[in-house]
Structure formats: structure tokens, C-alpha cells
TrEMBL record:
It comes from the Bacteria. Pfam families: DNA_processg_A. InterPro entries: DrpA_SLOG. This is Smf/DprA SLOG domain-containing protein. Residues 3-166 form the Smf/DprA SLOG domain.
Length: 174
């Protein structure tokens, strides 16, 4: 069994990206491989949701967050209070992570502060566990590029889907 990392944008996605993420996740499960991803909105959420929907064996799913579940949950509800994401998005993500945690697939970090450094360290953990990477690179974001760079430096296979999405800065992230 290989561990396939799926990573990409949390801020901006659309139905095309969601469908492609779900298709890639189903494909890797059909091959008997495992999924390793972060516990964020967007691409991570779609991949994890697909794993839960198809009933993937708990031994083939690893979701990594940079802190304890409690700190991470508080961080997402704070981001909702800032208007960066919606309250519904925060609730959906936390509910999904509760499910992942209950089946023993959540890997919690020890950072106390959720910031760019914490997320980039989480990316390192994901790539350390991965045998391959499937990246969904939207608007050439820095985080996804960091993931791609780390995977290439490790020498693992990298498959990149690139997208450009027009951003409406007057609304919270979709």
C-alpha cells in the first residue's frame, strides 16, 4: 500500500476542483492505497469527505492538524468570527474532524499557535508520510507550492492540477 497525499487550496475552490479531488480520492482507494491530508477546508475537506463516504478502512486514512483538536477547533471558530470563513464552514470542518478523530485517523500536533509556520510544518509532516502527492494548485498559492516543492525534494511522484479562479474579495472564502 502506498500513501498518497492530497493537498491544495482551502480558500478558493469550485465544483470542478471538488469533482476532480473526489475522483482522485476514489481512484486511490480503489487501488488499495491510503490517503494522507491536512484537516482544512477546500481540497483537504473534499478528499476526507470522500474517504468517509466510501467507508475507507481506518488504516488507510491519516489526517494531520498542526495542534490539538481543541486548539484547532477554536482557531476555526475564531476565523469565522473574523469573517474569513463562514460559521457553517467552521462547523462542517470541526464535525468532519470529530468523525475522523473518533475512528482513530486524526494526527494532532503540539503547536499552540495556528499560523503560517504551523501550517507549513504540517505540510512537512504530510510529505514525510507520503509516497506520492496529488496537488490542486489554485491561483499559484504559496502553501500548495511549498507542498509541491517538499514532495519534489523528497523525490516522490508529484501530480499537479492547476487552476485559476477569479476571487471576489467582498465575500468569505467559499
Amino acid at each position: 500500500m502506498k500513501w498518497i497525499a492530497i493537498a491544495g487550496s482551502w480558500r478558493h475552490t469550485n465544483s470542478e476542483i471538488e469533482n476532480q479531488v473526489r475522483e482522485e480520492a476514489r481512484s486511490l482507494f480503489a487501488l488499495g492505497d491510503g490517503l494522507v491530508s491536512g484537516g482544512a477546508l477546500g481540497v483537504d475537506f473534499f478528499a476526507t469527505d470522500e474517504a468517509l463516504q466510501v467507508g475507507v478502512d481506518a488504516n488507510r486514512l491519516k489526517i494531520i492538524i498542526p495542534s490539538t483538536f481543541e486548539i484547532y477547533s477554536a482557531h476555526y471558530f475564531y476565523r469565522a468570527s473574523e469573517g474569513v470563513i463562514t460559521h457553517e464552514q467552521a462547523e462542517s470542518l470541526i464535525s468532519q474532524l470529530e468523525t475522523v478523530r473518533s475512528i482513530g485517523c486524526l494526527i494532532e500536533g503540539d503547536t499552540q499557535i495556528i499560523d503560517k509556520v504551523a501550517y507549513f510544518n504540517r505540510i512537512t509532516q504530510i510529505i514525510d508520510l507520503a509516497d506520492e502527492l496529488i496537488a490542486f494548485h489554485v491561483n499559484t498559492t504559496e502553501g500548495t507550492q511549498d507542498t509541491i516543492n517538499k514532495a519534489r525534494a523528497k523525490g516522490i511522484e508529484v501530480k499537479v492540477f492547476s487552476y485559476a479562479i477569479k476571487i471576489d474579495r467582498t465575500k468569505p472564502c467559499p
